Amino acid sequence: MSADLNQPLSASEPPSAPVSDESALTGTVLAVQANFYFVQLDQPQGDSDPPIEQLLCTRRTRLKKIGQQVMVGDQVRIEEPDWEGKRGAIAEVFSRQTELDRPPIANADQILLVFAIAEPTLDPVQLSRFLVKAESTGLGVCLCLNKKDLVSEAERAEWGDRLHDWGYDPVMISVRGNLGLLDLEARLIDRMSVVSGPSGVGKSSLINALIPAIDLRVGRVSGKLGRGRHTTRHVELFQLPGGGLLADTPGFNQPDLDCLPGELAQFFPECRQRLSEARCQFSDCLHRDEPNCAVRGDWERYDLYLMFLEEVIARQEAIDRTGDPESTTKVKIGGEGQIEVEPKLQTKKYRRPSRRTEKQLLRGIVQDVETLIDDGDAEV
Ligand code: GDP
Ligand code: ZN
Fold it and tell me: What is the Å distance from ligand 1's center to 300 Cα?
């Protein structure tokens, strides 16, 4: 069950410009739970001291009727505030600048991709997979390498140069050593960043360091279900003390490369750079062995581009054959980097579950329903 960063959708929302009326109550949806939306107000308001910053809101029936979903990150207009009860109703969702569907987040500016420079060893193939996936969202990519305390200055410089050649300018930090955090904060200020990266690289440690009051979050999402919870599929925005928002998403170890073969090159800055300077002879060049290709050449990740391309093509062929690659085949990278397309196990329903797995299944269903409620998909 991996939550992926997916392509942003095109602007599918009904056009609605932010209202010009200065007295309008507007804010950002920080979290969604059941049919409740935690909204951070753009301007703290109300008669209390200090003024109220957040309202717990419902969605106007009118929005439900037109099928207008409210996502984490949405800019909204609120009506009928009840300052005493800290409640309100979302009356309008402004058009989204960007939209990710997995995790579901509106208006994010960049992906904050976190890796460790050591422990676990920084693997260029895995890093590139995450980078390609992050690039495929169309958002900016901020690459952060943690655990710099574990390597020598020479090793850091070597990685810095290497990543620079890939087209990135990584921020190197050590959460443990409290090093480089100011540099990172400077890149997050006043932006909405979505944290991504494999497990074990220090994402939780980093988020705790950036947002010291993070424990408050459990209080905010506890509610209907009667306990503080932070499920793996739950998405929530946290405010950075210096300004800006951070979305914490579950880690995933092997993000799928689910783009089209012809798109892949755009997700390598090295290719983008080459294509901005020259053109390939064929407009649909895949940069393999076509004549007069502007991309093919002596750059470090070119072989990796070819490897990913094969994977993307294999996936595309599976889709063309079956209409659904997920149900029949699984694309795997073998130990030596070779691509293997293997049949996938049939779905659970064809296997007779044992009593134990029946119980586990049931538990899974309960969790899924809870998560659905959390994600605000279920109308209760
Ligand atoms: P996550 O799985 O990405 O959320 O990673 P965690 O935050 O759980 O951290 C994984 C491990 O790395 C923990 O044992 C942390 O104490 C350790 N860790 C985190 N940051 C640093 C760092 O800057 N330096 C070192 N040496 N270890 C770190
Ligand atoms: Zn080419």
Answer: 29
Give the number of the ligand closest to the Cα of residue 309.
Answer: 2
Q: Which atom of ligand 1 is nearest to the CA of 197?
A: 3
Taking the C-alpha atoms of residue 127 and residue 115, their distance in angstroms, rounded to an integer, is 8
The ranges assigned to domains in the chain are 25-94, 107-248, 261-344, 346-380
Rounded to whole angstroms, the Cα distance separating 84 from 96 reads: 30
CA distance 315 to 294: 25
Q: Which two tokens stand for residue 46?
A: 């109300």
Pocket of ligand 1 (CB under 6 A): 146-147, 149-150, 174-176, 199-205, 251
Q: List CB contacts of 372: < 8 A, sequence separation 6 or more.
A: 378
Please state which of the ranges 63-72, 86-95, 326-335, 368-377 shows the lowest mean pLDDT: 368-377
Q: Note the pTM of the prediction, 2 decimals.
A: 0.80
**pLDDT one-digit tens code per residue, 96-134:** 999 998 889 999 999 999 999 999 999 999 999 999 999
What CATH class does 107-248 carry?
alpha beta
Structure confidence by residue, pLDDT tens digits, 311-349 = 999 999 999 988 775 644 555 555 555 555 554 433 333
Q: Considering every ligand atom, which ligand is closest to the CA of 210?
A: 1
* H-helix or E-strand spanning residue 316: helix 302-322
Tell me the CA–centroid distance for residue 297 and ligand 1, in Å.
37
Q: How far is the CA of 33 from the centre of ligand 1 (A)?
A: 29
**CATH of region 25-94, choose from 2.40.50.140, 3.40.50.2300, 3.40.50.720, 1.10.1660.10:** 2.40.50.140
**If one looks up domain 261-344 in CATH, what number appears?**
1.10.40
> Which ligand approaches the C-alpha of residue 112 most closely?
1
Question: What atom of ligand 1 comes closest to residue 175's alpha carbon?
Answer: 23
